[in-house]
Write a structure and sequence with these properties.
mainly beta; 69% strand; 8-stranded antiparallel barrel
């Protein structure tokens, strides 16, 4: 897993750093653009100390500014997990969301000066993840409630491919990864997890 994390981080970073060089090949691109992007996908949360994992539908809202066709910055909010479950006699609710900011790179497959066609992208940054969990158990008429919130700060990485219909609209497929730590509400023990998200997006640039 560490080798995979390193490879993903280097791939995302390489895409972000390669973007200015790709832009240098086009002397006609002088106007930046703001953008907003909505992403819908599936997130898998995996306990790093075991093979246990859970999945849920997730979404991200991103916005930022592309200084040119190939390089920019972004900020985002994502909701990755929000589910109820029943385990070992406890009714549980678990939520995970986060927000962050980073740099983005975009390299077109073909002539860099074009506004349409296929592209590859990468993003690297820092994010703050919020984990909330609660558990309720009723035994012999006595109800016991547990609740815990955990926060963590960590880097995030992402890569993607997509297609731009014109200068203002495009779609894409993305893979994103981050690593965090949480506390189990019933025991207080710390657990490390990996969050992997595969999703599709629609982007509008203005």
């Amino acid at each position: 897993m560490k080798k995979f994390q390193t490879t993903l981080a280097l791939t995302a970073l390489a895409a972000a750093l390669a973007a200015p060089a790709a832009f240098a090949q086009s002397s006609t691109d002088t106007v930046g653009q703001g953008f907003v992007r909505g992403e819908l996908g599936k997130t898998k949360l995996k306990d790093t100390s075991s093979s246990d994992n859970v999945k849920d539908t997730s979404y991200n809202i991103r916005g930022g500014y592309m200084f040119n066709r190939n390089f920019g910055v972004e900020g985002f909010y994502g909701r990755y997990y929000d589910k109820n479950s029943h385990n070992l006699g406890f009714d549980q609710n678990t939520k995970l969301d986060g927000y962050g900011a980073g740099v983005v790179g975009k390299v077109r497959f073909g002539e860099q000066a074009l506004d349409t066609g296929f592209y590859g992208s990468g993003r690297v940054g820092l994010m703050h993840a919020n984990y909330k969990a609660s558990a309720t158990n009723t035994t012999g008429g006595i109800t016991t409630n547990y609740s815990v919130s955990s926060n963590s700060n960590q880097p995030y990485y992402g890569v993607g491919i997509g297609y731009d219909f014109n200068r203002n609209m495009g779609v894409g497929l993305n893979y994103d990864y981050f690593h965090g730590r949480v506390r189990v509400p019933t025991t207080g023990n710390k657990v490390s997890y990996n969050a992997q998200t595969l999703g599709a997006d629609f982007e509008y640039r203005f």
